[in-house]
């Protein structure tokens, strides 16, 4: 059964010119693009998106980082799209958790600057797609 997930190429990924690389991996996996937009997130959007991390030590830095430059927001769709994109992304820490062959494992070093976001569950995907693409 097809499902949708919310993907971000974070500002570090855009700055480094990795948008095409990320989209190519999504498409090669067999997933489809349902929406795509380059934009600079305002603080309210970033705070809503990362509400689960409010109060954590890295939260303020995370919101600063996500709002600090243009990002690419996408809705990606296909069979098992949510776990499939998490697999492509790799673990949160690009060195300690993500393995080579994943986006974070191939291109990342620091945990904050880990290039991409992907929804972690069906509930998260529904919530996040509403935040970034309310008309979809
Ligand atoms: P994301 O939500 O961005 O897809 O990443 P994730 O599920 O793999 O990781 P999560 O635990 O949700 O963390 C959200 C983002 O916060 C930054 N972070 N920094 N300095 C730190 O210890 C730390 N921990 C997390 C990362 O940008 C991470 O992706
Ligand atoms: Mg997360």
Reported by name, the CATH topology is Alpha-Beta Plaits
Structural domains: how many: 1
**Would you count the extended β strands for me?**
4
Average pLDDT, to the nearest integer? 98
The structural class is alpha+beta
Task: List all distinct small molecules, including ions and cofactors, that are bound in this structure.
Answer: ribavirin triphosphate, magnesium ion
CATH superfamily: Nucleoside diphosphate kinase-like domain
**Largest sheet, if any?**
4 strands, antiparallel
The ordered H/E elements are EHHEHHEHHEH
CATH level-1 class? Alpha Beta
Rg estimate, integer Å: 14 Å
Termini separation: 19 Å
Question: Quaternary arrangement of the chains shown?
Answer: single chain
Helix content: 40-55%
Estimated share of beta-strand residues: 15-25%
Uncertain stretches: none
Q: Please identify, by name, the CATH architecture.
A: 2-Layer Sandwich
Shape: globular
Strands in their spatial order, largest beta sheet: 2-3-1-4
Tally the helices.
Answer: 7
List its traits:
Alpha-Beta Plaits, 21% strand, binds magnesium ion, globular, 136 residues, four-stranded antiparallel beta sheet, binds ribavirin triphosphate, alpha+beta, nucleoside diphosphate kinase activity, phosphoprotein
Summarize the helices and strands and which ones pair or pack:
Blueprint: E1 2-9, H1 11-15, H2 19-29, E2 32-39, H3 43-49, H4 59-67, E3 71-79, H5 81-89, H6 103-107, E4 116-118, H7 122-132
Antiparallel strand pairs: 1-3, 1-4, 2-3
Ribavirin triphosphate is lined by residues 53, 58, 62, 92, 111-112, 114, 117-118, 120.
């Amino acid at each position: 059964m097809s499902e949708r997930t919310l993907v971000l190429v974070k500002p570090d990924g855009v700055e480094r010119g990795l948008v095409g690389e990320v989209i190519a991996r999504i498409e090669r996996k067999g997933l489809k693009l349902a929406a795509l937009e380059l934009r600079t997130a305002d603080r309210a959007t970033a705070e809503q998106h990362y509400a689960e991390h409010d109060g954590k030590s890295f939260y303020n830095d995370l919101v600063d980082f996500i709002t600090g430059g243009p990002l690419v927001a996408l809705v990606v769709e296909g069979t098992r799209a949510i776990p499939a994109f998490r697999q492509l992304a790799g673990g949160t820490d690009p060195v300690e958790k993500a393995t080579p062959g994943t986006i974070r494992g191939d291109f990342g070093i620091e945990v904050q600057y880990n290039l991409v976001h992907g929804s972690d569950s069906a509930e998260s995907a529904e919530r996040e797609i509403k935040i970034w693409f309310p008309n979809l």
